[in-house]
Automatic annotation (TrEMBL):
Record Gene3D superfamilies: NAD(P)-binding Rossmann-like Domain (3.40.50.720)
Source organism per UniProt: Fructilactobacillus lindneri DSM 20690 = JCM 11027
Organism placement in taxonomy: Bacteria, Bacillati, Bacillota, Bacilli, Lactobacillales
NAD(P)-binding domain segment(s): 28-173
Lineage: superkingdom: Bacteria
Protein name, UniProt field: NAD(P)-binding domain-containing protein
Pfam families with a match to the protein in the record: NAD_binding_10
Span of the signal peptide: none
Length: 187
């Protein structure tokens, strides 16, 4: 039986994940690329068979979007087996150096929103994975690697390609369950 995967958001890594999962016969992939992710109507009539959700939502108001999404999932009685969220490094002051936050005017509020979204996910008591990203690059610079939560994270880079590869591993191999890990690349 195919697993149903919902991809939320629109960026190059999300598109790569959709493409790679569609190439595998065991996944039925739906992507919501646009819309107001903070509006409950965006999630009206979700596929009741969704078992995995991957959120590329952001940068702003991710907490409101995740709250509306989880309200819709509960209201539609969808049983999620794994929730994967792309967040940012720095939410726990773990970054050594300075990261860029493109499109973000108030970094303090942005980090607060990211923390609250993760709290919503944690309190849902479903298996989750949070990938905390450093600065995103279009072109890959080296091998990707993870740093566990609570460890210092050097300011650095990660490509959309590497992000997509780790997300696909999380979906297809059930890796990084109940973990929050930073993603980086060797330079």
């Amino acid at each position: 039986m195919k697993k149903s995967v919902l991809i939320l958001g629109n960026n190059p890594a999300a598109d790569m994940v959709v493409k790679q999962l569609n190439e595998k016969q065991q996944y039925n992939v739906t992507q919501i690329k646009q819309g107001d992710f903070t509006d409950h109507a965006t999630y009206f009539n979700l596929d009741p068979e969704i078992s995995i959700i991957v959120s590329f939502i952001g940068p702003q108001d991710v907490d409101l979007a995740i709250q509306e999404l989880f309200d819709a999932v509960r209201g539609q009685q969808i049983k999620i087996e794994h929730f994967i969220m792309l967040s940012t490094a720095g939410i726990d002051n773990e970054v050594i150096g300075k990261l860029n936050y493109p499109g973000v005017k108030d970094v303090t509020e942005y980090l607060r929103e990211q923390r609250y979204a993760i709290k919503i996910i944690d309190e849902a008591e479903i298996p989750y994975t949070v990938f905390r990203l450093v600065d995103l690059l279009v072109k890959k610079t080296g091998a990707g690697y993870t740093i566990n939560e609570g460890k210092p994270v050097p300011a650095g880079n990660v490509s959309y390609e590497t992000v997509a590869a780790f997300v696909v591993q999380a979906v297809t191999q059930n890796k990084f369950i109940n973990q929050s890990v930073a993603l980086l690349e060797d330079s």
